[in-house]
């Protein structure tokens, strides 16, 4: 259990309308913090600004069910080996549930499934995405990728730099995804030990993201669908360039808002918290404020790359250009779907404006 001594890292505190009952304490790599008698919390390293991902370990007869697995990078494998030889010794992995296909969640699912003969449980779209991306290996990016970058207003230099990174980088940090899976879908109930977890699907960050709700005990395993401090990436991407992921995301926020405010939320990044409604309201307002600011900025025609200052309040360097572009495009596309922006294509570049010009 987290250290609960006064003033310690485990001291409960509140910040921006959320309460963190376990304080700032978190499990060191290779250790497990008990959230409840049958729910363990582990943390694995993730390079870059995310820094970590939280893993949930649910006890059941004969072993443990894992929720999410970490990137397939040496420090994550080492952390798993320490967990399996330490706090999880004698508790075989019976099932693996991945909330969604992103590499920090599914990265070691195949590796763990293979070791234990455990089945992978996921929503169908998320499993298909992971399988598709690991199979899509080619020497250089497809022409559609170049068109996508050009449409967003990238410079020739930025396009060349991105192309030089190659294609199929998903597999570099994801162990082979199992060729079969157990499908879970919205509304399903999954019995694990003494608990029933209801699958609550959200969309916008990924296509069919599964949260797990233990309504009887007031616990929500939220994945990336609700994070306490950072906003989840909501990007328009190459696979569905005419989709409306921000519309999906706002609808998912509204749907999650119907769950009880009292839930103890276990997020994939950051510390467990209460204050679900306050957090959802902040996320919703943040996106709507940015849409309004962007709408005003489109008094003159703009490309996605012109909108970074308005959306992020800072310059975007090469390392975050892809993510920033996806986010900018998802906001521009939402304005277009709402009828608040009109897109004009000139020489392959998308220009968005709040009014059609003669
Ligand atoms: Zn994610």
Question: Top keywords for this entry?
Answer:
358 residues; globular; 10 helices; disordered N terminus; seven-stranded mixed β-sheet; alpha/beta; binds zinc ion; single chain; five-stranded mixed β-sheet
Structure, described:
The protein is α/β, with parallel strands linked by helices and 358 residues long. A hairpin with a 6-residue loop joins strand 11 and strand 12. Helix 7 packs antiparallel against helix 8 and helix 8 (276-297) packs across helix 10 (321-337). The protein has helices spanning 74-85, 103-106, 109-116, 124-135, 143-151, 156-164, 245-256, 276-297, 308-312, 321-337; strands spanning 13-15, 18-20, 33-36, 39-46, 51-60, 63-67, 93-97, 119-122, 182-183, 189-192, 195-202, 209-214, 219-223, 264-267, 342-346, 349-353. The strands form four sheets. A seven-stranded mixed sheet has the order 3-4-5-6-7-8-9. Strands 10-11-12-13-14 form a five-stranded mixed sheet. The site of zinc ion has 5 residues, from loops.
Brief rundown of the structure:
The chain has 358 residues and is an alpha/beta fold. The protein has 10 helices and 16 strands. Strand 5 and strand 6 form a beta hairpin.
Task: Annotate the secondary structure layout.
Blueprint: E1 13-15, E2 18-20, E3 33-36, E4 39-46, E5 51-60, E6 63-67, H1 74-85, E7 93-97, H2 103-106, H3 109-116, E8 119-122, H4 124-135, H5 143-151, H6 156-164, E9 182-183, E10 189-192, E11 195-202, E12 209-214, E13 219-223, H7 245-256, E14 264-267, H8 276-297, H9 308-312, H10 321-337, E15 342-346, E16 349-353
Parallel strand pairs: 6-7, 7-8, 8-9, 13-14
Antiparallel strand pairs: 1-2, 3-4, 4-5, 5-6, 10-11, 11-12, 12-13, 15-16
The protein binds zinc ion.
């Amino acid at each position: 259990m987290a250290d609960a001594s006064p003033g310690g890292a485990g001291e409960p505190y509140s910040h921006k309308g959320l309460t963190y009952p376990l304080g700032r304490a978190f499990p060191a790599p290779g250790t497990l913090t008990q959230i409840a008698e049958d729910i363990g919390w582990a943390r694995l390293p993730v390079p870059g600004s995310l820094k970590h991902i939280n893993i949930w370990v649910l006890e059941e007869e004969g072993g443990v069910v894992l929720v999410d697995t970490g990137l397939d990078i040496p420090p994550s494998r080492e952390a798993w080996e320490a967990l399996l030889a330490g706090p999880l010794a004698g508790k075989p992995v019976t099932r693996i549930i991945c909330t969604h296909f992103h590499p920090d969640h599914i990265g070691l699912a195949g590796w763990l499934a293979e070791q234990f003969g455990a089945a992978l449980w996921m929503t169908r779209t998320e499993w298909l995405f992971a399988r598709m991306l690991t199979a899509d290996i080619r020497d250089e990016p497809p022409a559609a990728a170049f068109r996508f970058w050009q449409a967003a207003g990238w410079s020739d230099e930025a396009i060349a730099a991105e192309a030089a990174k190659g294609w199929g980088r998903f597999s570099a940090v994801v162990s082979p995804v199992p060729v079969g899976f157990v499908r879970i879908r919205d509304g399903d109930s999954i019995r694990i030990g003494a608990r029933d977890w209801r699958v609550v699907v959200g969309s916008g960050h990924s296509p069919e993201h599964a949260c797990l709700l233990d309504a009887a005990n007031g616990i929500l395993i939220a994945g990336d669908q609700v994070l306490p401090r950072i906003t989840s990436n909501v990007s328009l991407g190459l696979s569905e360039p005419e989709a409306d992921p921000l519309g999906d995301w706002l609808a998912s926020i509204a749907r999650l808002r119907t769950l009880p405010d009292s839930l103890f939320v276990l997020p994939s990044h950051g510390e467990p918290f209460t204050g679900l409604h306050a957090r959802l309201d902040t996320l919703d307002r943040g996106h709507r404020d940015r849409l309004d600011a962007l709408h005003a900025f489109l008094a003159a025609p703009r490309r996605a790359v012109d909108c970074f200052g308005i959306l992020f309040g800072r310059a975007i360097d090469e390392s975050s250009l892809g993510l920033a572009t996806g986010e900018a495009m998802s906001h521009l596309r939402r304005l277009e779907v709402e009828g608040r922006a009109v897109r004009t294509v000139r020489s392959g570049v998308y220009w968005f404006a709040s009014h059609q010009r003669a």
